[in-house]
Amino acid sequence: MNSTSSTTWRDFYELGKPRVVALIVFTAVVGMFLAVPGLPPLSKLLFGTLGIGLAASGAAAVNHLLDQRVDAVMFRTRHRPLPTGQVTERQVLLYALILTMLSMLILTALVNTLTAVLTFFSLVGYAVIYTVFLKRASPQNIVIGGAAGAAPPLLGWTAVTGDTHAGAFVLFLIIFIWTPPHFWALAIHRREDYAKVGIPMLPVTHGVEYTKLQILLYTALLLAVSLLPFVIGMNGYVYLAAALILGGVFLWYAWRLKVSADETLPMRTFHWSIWYLSLLFAALLVDHYLMRFAPLL
Fold it and tell me: Is 8 left (phi over 0), alpha (psi -120 to 50) or beta?
């Protein structure tokens, strides 16, 4: 493939899926702060964030490379840098390799080996196992593949402590359960795109109504799982209130999606799901320090 116009820094910036990476990095950073009672060591915070962010961007670039033919057909992705010829396959591959190598060097040398290893497996899980195999093999692709996307807070935790902890796995579980209703809402809206390229997303293989039911069930489960930080004593009442309110709103969206034929609801649910996760992790962080300075909260 030859680029049709000069390649700019923005083309490479877009290869890294900046909005997705921003959420990944944010949840990783929250994991770092929750791992310690005070403030995480500055070097671990900075280099851990940089290493995890570079790995996420590298994985996103590999995803662009492997999905370029599908991206060229789908309405949502046809303006990405590869389908439009703004970058070449060689450029994307080199970009992904550089980011991945830098990530592994930073995490191994300046953070710890466990974080480097877990980050590498997460990268492979998303960029290769999910993109190449699961995405095209099963309508449960996003459920199984969600494990890679749920790793960032666990990575953040290990970056600071060098070890895993029950609290880190709770954060992992929240994102793992959040991923299916989040992505299936988008899949309902873009079901014709997925059908056109032969990707067996749940709305394509089992229909919209069945997918709406699954979104509702997973959202109810998510609300229950989101209470675990309070149950295990990791967070306090401020977080509990936030989890109940945010989860209640998400459940309301899921219920409305189930009972209504409004074609705008899938994307409204999808957008709320992003706000939900961002605000929930912000609440985890705020409550963590409120518990330290005002224990009764």
Answer: beta
- How far apart, in whole angstroms, are the C-alpha atoms of residue 274 and residue 283? 14
Rounded CA-CA distance 60/82 in Å is 13
145 contacts 125 by C-beta, under 8 angstroms: yes
Other beta carbons within 10 angstroms of residue 224's beta carbon come to 12
pLDDT by position in tens, the chain (length 297): 444 456 677 767 677 677 888 999 999 999 999 999 999 999 999 999 999 999 999 998 898 888 888 878 887 778 888 888 888 889 989 999 999 999 999 999 999 999 999 999 999 888 888 877 777 888 888 888 888 889 999 999 999 999 999 999 999 999 999 999 999 999 999 899 888 888 899 999 999 999 999 999 999 999 999 999 999 999 999 999 999 999 999 999 999 999 999 999 999 999 999 999 999 999 999 999 997 777 655
Residue with tokens 């074609």, as numbered in its chain: 263
* Torsional class of 66: left (φ above 0), alpha (ψ -120 to 50), beta (otherwise): alpha
Q: Which residues, other chains included, contact 141 with Cβ-Cβ below 8 Å and sequence gap of 6+?
A: 130, 134, 135, 200, 201
Residue 169: which residues within 8 A CB-CB, separation 6 or more?
154
Q: Give Rg (Cα) of the chain.
A: 19
Give the number of other Cβ atoms within 10 Å of residue 98's Cβ.
Answer: 13
234 in Cβ contact with 170 (< 8 Å): yes
Q: Helices 265-293 & 166-189, crossing angle to 10 degrees?
A: 160
Which residues are within 8 A (CB) of 207 and not within 5 positions of it... i.e. 6 or more apart? none
Distance CA 44, CA 115 (A): 11
**Cα angle: 209, vertex 257, 275; to 5 degrees:** 130
